[in-house]
Write a structure and sequence with these properties.
The protein is an alpha/beta fold and 466 residues long. 37% of the residues lie in helices and 15% in strands.
Length: 466
């Protein structure tokens, strides 16, 4: 099976997880004070700040057409309204290194981390107020404009904010990310969580506008100067008990909260606060401010109705991840019998088909798979996961769904927000021997696929069995 001409084959990374020695952002402070999940600090991570040329060559060696990476806001603007020319020159070198090898850069402007002058998790410090503040929205838009001015001649693909829903729920609902706020009450959701979500949506919408206005250069010659989207983590939700109306309704609420509210706000629907299917807040200035849907797909969650939890969600997914299994506290969570990743979540390739089909029916926009991957030390398992997901992508393409490409997470192993143990890379990293990268079996199979823009029969036969 051949994918359409121009199908994007890529891999991804993020700055804080790979670059190393980023001392000027909120996560550097957070990983030293947070009691949650932080086993080891990022340190030099994978040393990618120094080894970007090596990584570009690795991407070329497996015939990638695109490489997604993030630019670290705290390096570009270490102090408010102060631009660091050395950092700008560095990222220009990263972009040039890719383009010299025929690889199209996809840049992410914000991948979870903030400059300390925007958000400092240390108690008693002064900062801009993080994403609770409209000032942060204004400053992010200025930063987006600077990026478009500096790199627009060579960059045509922009991702504004990575996984806004994760940023919101981890930072402002459950307290797992900076600033560590816990607002798991109805009042907290309406007065803190939702305002932060809306600030992030507004930041994207305004950044979209300023990038479109500023970047007038067609860097890759396709007739479009700037394609702007944002990647959201989209899970495939199903009721824990399909015969229970409560679980069915809870699944719909969960889906609206996590999967739909972001893109509803940017298209023709609007923000649905009480999750009843009717938008409560429609902002005309947000409408149409996205060129494609960015899908980060990893998870298949069964949902249980929990009336005792604060409205409007009043539900929980049967989460099993990083040693925590909520099914021990919930009734009727189905037993997972299939494969799991090393992070503990179920590997469910079919879910990518269902969610992308649902998103396309709802929004009628092209889809770019901006992340999909698996945490495992087995290259064979990685190869199997990639091929099994791509078989479902193949089905989408055959049905006429405009899937633009597939970006595997990640090019190399990285620091996974508190630990180096989850290994996602097409290239394995030896942290004890100068960060040496070595292609694993998953990377070899991905190279075969990217090289022919196809799923070879022998690859399907060996790795595509369900």
């Amino acid at each position: 099976f051949y994918f359409p001409d121009g199908f994007m084959w890529g891999a991804g990374s993020s700055a804080y997880q790979t670059e190393g020695n980023n001392f000027n952002c909120d996560w550097y402070v957070w990983e030293r004070k947070s009691p949650f999940f932080i086993e080891v600090p990022a340190g030099k991570a994978t040393n990618a700040y120094e080894m970007y040329d090596t990584d570009a060559e690795l991407a070329k060696d497996i015939n990638l057409t695109h490489y997604r990476f993030s630019i670290e806001w705290s390096r570009i603007e270490p102090q408010k309204d102060v631009w660091d020319e050395d950092a700008i020159a560095h990222y220009r070198n990263v972009i040039n290194s890719l383009k010299e090898r025929g690889i199209t850069p996809i840049i992410t402007l914000h991948h979870f981390t903030n400059p300390l002058w925007v958000l400092n998790p240390e108690e008693g410090t002064s900062d801009l107020g993080g994403w609770t503040s409209k000032d942060t929205v204004d400053e992010f838009v200025e930063y987006a404009k600077k990026i478009a001015e500096e790199f627009g001649r060579d960059v045509d693909w922009y991702l504004t904010i990575n996984e806004p829903i994760i940023l919101v729920i981890s930072g402002y609902l459950y307290g797992l990310f900076p600033p560590g706020e816990i607002n798991f009450t109805t009042r907290g959701i309406y007065e803190k969580v939702y305002p932060v979500m809306k600030n992030l949506i507004e930041a994207h919408a305004r950044a979209y506008e300023v990038i479109k206005e500023t970047d007038a250069w067609d860097g890759d010659g396709d007739g479009v100067s700037a394609n702007v989207g944002l990647p959201e983590t989209i899970a495939f939700y199903e009721p824990a008990d399909p015969s229970d109306p409560g679980d069915v309704a809870a699944t719909t609420r969960m889906e609206r909260f996590y999967d739909f509210n972001l893109y509803d706000s940017l298209t023709i629907y609007g923000f649905d606060e009480n999750l009843d299917g009717t938008p409560d807040d429609v902002r005309q200035e947000w409408q149409g401010k996205v060129d494609f849907i960015g899908v980060n797909y990893y998870n298949h969650w069964y949902v249980v109705d929990v009336p005792g939890l604060p409205p409007p969600i009043s539900a929980l997914p049967c989460v099993s991840m990083r040693g925590f299994d909520i099914s021990t506290f919930l009734r009727d969570c189905p037993t997972i019998t299939g494969e799991r990743s090393n992070l503990g979540y179920e590997i469910y390739p079919e879910g990518i088909y269902h969610i992308i089909k649902k998103l396309y029916r709802r929004y009628k926009l092209p889809i770019l798979i901006t992340e999909n991957g698996v945490a495992t030390t087995s290259g064979e398992k990685r190869a199997r996961v990639i091929v099994r997901h791509l078989l479902w992508v193949k089905k989408l393409v055959q049905e006429g769904i405009p899937v633009l490409g597939y970006i595997y997470w990640s090019l190399t192993d990285n620091w996974e927000w508190g630990t180096f143990e989850p290994r996602f890379g097409l290239y394995s990293v030896d942290y004890e021997h100068n960060f040496q990268r070595s292609l694993n079996r998953g990377g070899e199979i991905f190279k075969e696929i990217a090289s022919c823009n196809c799923l070879p029969g022998w690859v399907i036969d060996k790795y595509g069995q369900q």
